[in-house]
Amino acid sequence: MSQRPLDIGWLRIFEAAGRLGSLTRAAHELGLTQPAVTYQIKRVEEQLGVSLLRRSQGGSRLTDAGEILFQAVQSSVESIDKAARDTRRTSKVPAVRIFTDFGFAAFWLMPRVTDFRRLHPEAEVHIVASQGLEDALERDTDAAMLFGAREDFPDTARLLIPECVVPVCTPGFLERFGPFDSPADFAAAPLLHLETTGKSRWLTWATWLAAHGVTRPPAQGDLGLNTYGFVIQAALAEQGVALGWRGLVDPHLDQGSLVAVGPDVTRNDRGYWLVPSTTANPTASPTTSVLLDWLMNET
Fold first, then answer.
1. Dihedrals phi, psi of 61, to nearest 5 degrees
2. What is the tally of helices (H) and strands (E) in the chain?
3. Is 135 left (phi over 0), alpha (psi -120 to 50) or beta?
4. How confident is the model at residue 3, as a pLDDT?
5. Rounded (10°) CA dihedral 202, 203, 206, 211
């Protein structure tokens, strides 16, 4: 049996599972997925070397060992929540400010910040989004999540998601305009373009097609949009085929509202990077490093 101290991040998850008698209801209450709750419980069971929950079709019941741990955990969670409320009344904790672009904020960052705040209800997080990223590293933020190549950022930057792009559309659009058996077949389909100022940091339809030996300039019937959120909304509205960034469109692919209709193109030297602030902030929230490490683990 491992003698290492247990990571305390699982406390609230186990308390909810034991109190509600259901991993599914615990996941719903915490705003997490049921597999994420199951994974955390299994990790604790492996560290302790005992079963904590007896799973059945009707839910989950605490084992004898689980009941012992639950009594201590429930008391601890209640004490922690009370201490957090008391601390909040006596001291205003500075907010963590993170800068990124609109698409990444909506599709990747916001859902994960929501999960983080359910586990750390005392945390205050501000997301600052903009399509103009030229002065991102100079902004008054604690960190930035930016798209680019390794050489675009300081040595302290950490890669969150490497660039991996796949064409996506709705099942209905595929039925009308498909099949797309080869990259050349996209030449006859309406394509959705992400329009940017200056040289694009992201993969474009021109570069995706060129990677497969296809040349195809923008054509009548194509649609250009200036934010990635608009591009995906247009794809969902069956206006064309979009380039889907893995990590951003995964929920739509999992739900079946979008389907992958071509091969991936991956550029491991490019992607979204977590870039800490380049200037020391004496009023930075102590939550900053906890949140940034948690986000890195989410990838």
1. -115, 145
2. 11, 11
3. alpha
4. 40
5. 150
153, HSE (Cβ side, Cα atoms, 13 Å): 26
Encoding tokens for residue 150? 């390794």
| 3-class state of residue 236 by DSSP | helix
Cα–Cα–Cα angle for 245, 246, 251, nearest 5°? Answer: 105
Q: What is the pLDDT of residues 32-57, one digit of tens each?
A: 888 888 988 998 899 899 999 998 87
For 266-273, what is the mean pLDDT? Answer: 89
Residue 111, CA distances (Å) to 137, 156, 253 in order = 23, 25, 16
Confidence of residue 90 (pLDDT cuts 50, 70, 90): low
Determine whether 211 is exposed, middle or buried from the number of CB atoms within 10 Å of its CB (0-12, 13-18, 19+): middle
Count of other CB atoms within 10 angstroms of residue 140: 10
- In angstroms, the Cα distances linking 203 to 166, 216, 245 are 10, 15, 9
| pLDDT for the residue 5 | 42
Consecutive H or E run containing 292 = helix 287-298
Joined tokens for residue 109: 């960052």
DSSP 100-130: E-HHHIIIIIHHHHHHHHHH-TT--EEEEE-
Q: How many residues does the chain have?
A: 299
Report the alpha-carbon angle 133-136-141, nearest 5.
Answer: 140
Closest CA to 53 of 21, 16, 26: 21
